[in-house]
Write a structure and sequence with these properties.
The protein is mainly β. Helices cover 8% and strands 38% of the residues. The chain starts with a strand and ends in a 10-residue tail after the last strand.
């Protein structure tokens, strides 16, 4: 018996049939699924993100930014973003504005707006 358990999936198969996983991968490709290319949770130097749900015109991600780390300063020409802080404090750069977002608060990043998300860690202002 072969048992492979990852955050994305669990495979249980007899040893003589373990190579049949290739059929599953082929079926994923045939159906246009991304799971054969990328894990649901993607590790990055600054932390990780997990795609929780996606549709034709949206994607919901859980983003975890390690203390003292930040995302790159970026602009998206074809999408906006809406960030909700679940825990900790986020330092947000939106255009020329820099401000903090606390748990249960959110912020909106319009299309074509220069932005960045940071986890200031212990350097963050106290929650209000």
């Amino acid at each position: 018996m072969v048992v492979v358990d990852t955050p994305d999936a669990t495979l249980i198969a007899s040893k003589d049939r373990a190579q049949e996983v290739r059929r599953v991968v082929a079926e994923l490709k045939k159906n246009g699924r991304e799971e054969h290319l990328i894990h649901r949770t993607v590790e990055r130097p600054w932390g990780s993100y997990t795609v929780l749900e996606k549709g034709e015109r949206y994607r919901i991600k859980r983003v975890v930014i390690n203390p003292g780390e930040k995302l790159s300063l970026q602009v998206h020409r074809h999408r906006s973003e809406h960030w909700v802080v679940i825990s900790g404090t986020a330092k947000v750069t939106k255009g020329d504005d820099v401000y903090y977002v606390h748990p249960n608060e959110s912020t909106y990043i319009p299309v074509s707006t220069l932005h960045r998300l940071e986890n200031p860690g212990s350097n963050s202002p106290p929650d209000h």
